[in-house]
Design a protein that fits this description.
The chain has about 60 residues and is an all-alpha fold. The chain has one domain. It is built from 3 helices and no strands. Helix 1 runs antiparallel to helix 3. It is elongated, with a radius of gyration of 13 Å.
């Protein structure tokens, strides 16, 4: 149960990064003017990882 809560919190963090992709690119990755393509790739990657993690947690962790 604890593992499930931690994984779901990680999903929430990844979704927040997806929502704030421009801030993430500028402050964390230190890219001064991120292009729209880069922002799209960050959003897509974080969303994909979050969904895969969520599905794996729901299927395998009981």
């Amino acid at each position: 149960m604890v593992i499930k809560i931690i994984c779901l919190a990680l999903c929430a963090l990844l979704l927040f990064i997806c929502y704030r992709a421009k801030f993430f690119a500028e402050k964390v990755l230190r890219i001064p003017e991120p292009s729209d393509t880069l922002l799209f790739r960050i959003k897509l990657a974080t969303l994909a990882v979050s969904m895969i993690l969520f599905v794996c947690v729901m299927i395998f962790v009981k």
